[in-house]
Amino acid sequence: MKVSVLFSGGKDSSMAAILLEPFFEVELVTCNFSLLSTDEIAAEVASRIGLPHRILNMDSDILENAYEMIIRDGFPKNAINYIHQKTVESLALEDGVKFIADGTRRDDRVPVLTASQIQSIEDRFYVNYLCPLRGYGRTAVNQLVKTHLIIQEALSDDISKADYEAELRELIKLRHGIDIIEKLFPPHVQSKVIERIK
Amino acid sequence: MKVSVLFSGGKDSSMAAILLEPFFEVELVTCNFSLLSTDEIAAEVASRIGLPHRILNMDSDILENAYEMIIRDGFPKNAINYIHQKTVESLALEDGVKFIADGTRRDDRVPVLTASQIQSIEDRFYVNYLCPLRGYGRTAVNQLVKTHLIIQEALSDDISKADYEAELRELIKLRHGIDIIEKLFPPHVQSKVIERIK
To answer: Chain B within 8 Å of A140 (Cβ-Cβ)?
Structure first.
């Protein structure tokens, strides 16, 4: 059974993939809007983890809609969740994709699909949506990560990652300059995987 | 890292244990109130799965309280959740128990601890509570089960399992006869693991 794991290069999506690895044929998938080379960043991390990786090229209209949402809202939650949902749906449309997974933890708030969004995706696209870390709290995930991964942690500004936020931030920066970024995105620590502990 | 998996001999707790096995030192734990030999039933299934197993002897007051709840309520939900919570707490009190897991799926309703119950247990007892199947829907769990386990499925009356319900049903039967059982417990299909596919 093949599973496509939405992959940002961070600790959660990496750990989700590692938990699935003994039971599925895992492929890592990173969405890209052709604005930043997040594809290369993710491919590099994937090769360090030792799992196959591919890019999902996304329609720039989706990033445009997300941009409008965050400018209208003044905070990123809805925009990020929207990109997440559209990415899952794009993946679910592909032939041969039957299991889609992500790195959502028990205490995550964004990006998180609601129970009815998940049910709707499973019913409309005949796929299974898996969140291997959904039953793990932050401490338990960190313990697993410590055993399996060497990571770098830093504020979002200082880390080059391939998450949904990266290209959205870039688009905003191009249109409004850098100062608006810290108004829209509250500072938060992000992680990037450096190496897998074998 | 050792994890203690609450184990009924059914497909969900077995599959949860199998998902954890590559990452933790797994022990299966079955609670018993000395009313039925659910300990032997569980030990037999555990040996077929090939994982170490032990019994958690529970205070009969807890079964008594659960009995009062179900008689008062007329349905089993609160009684079963109560036994589950008390079992997790008993286990969490033990020295050396740092990770406790169960077989809760995404769409399970009973027994399920709420987010605040889980948080409270983690904070009071310094343990991590894991639900490896929490991010998996019914179909996905069934697919995994089909790959890893041979199971028997039947209505609760016709299956000898080591779940919380078994001894509660027995106590009610001893005190009120068998007819009340089907009034209190809606008929539902249960599973028991017969063999592990290696």
So the answer is: yes
A13 CB near a chain B CB, below 8 Å? no
β-strands A189-196, A149-155: how paired? Answer: antiparallel
CB contact under 8 A, A134 and B19: no
Write down the pLDDT at residue B159: 82
- Bridge partner list, A29: A6, A54
Tokens in use for A34?
A: 């052709």
Cα–Cα distance, B80 to B123 (Å, whole number): 23
A115-125 and A77-93 helices cross at what angle (nearest 10)?
20
Strands (DSSP E) along chain A, which ranges? 2-6, 25-32, 53-57, 99-101, 128-130, 149-155, 189-196
For every one of its 198 residues, what pLDDT tens digit does chain B have, with 9 covering 90 and above?
Answer: 999 999 999 999 999 999 999 999 999 999 999 999 999 999 999 999 999 999 999 999 999 999 999 999 999 999 999 999 999 999 999 999 999 999 999 998 888 899 899 999 999 999 999 999 999 999 999 999 999 999 999 987 778 888 899 999 999 999 999 999 989 998 888 999 999 998
Burial degree of A1 (CB within 10 A; 0-12, 13-18, 19+): middle
Determine the angle formed by the axes of helices B164-176 and B60-73, rounding to 10 degrees.
70
Tell me how far apart the alpha carbons of residues B129 and B141 are, in angstroms, rounded to a whole number: 20
For A135, which of B133, B137, B139 is closest by C-beta distance?
Answer: B133
Global pTM reads 0.95
Helix and strand tally (H, E) in chain A? 8, 7
How much is the ipTM here? 0.94
Does any CB of chain A come closer than 8 Å to the CB of residue B25?
no
Q: Are strands B53-57 and B25-32 parallel, antiparallel or unpaired?
A: parallel
Contact yes or no for A23 and B133 at CB 8 A: no
Q: What is the three-class DSSP state of A83?
A: helix
**Cβ contacts of A140 on chain B, cutoff 8 Å:** 99, 128, 130
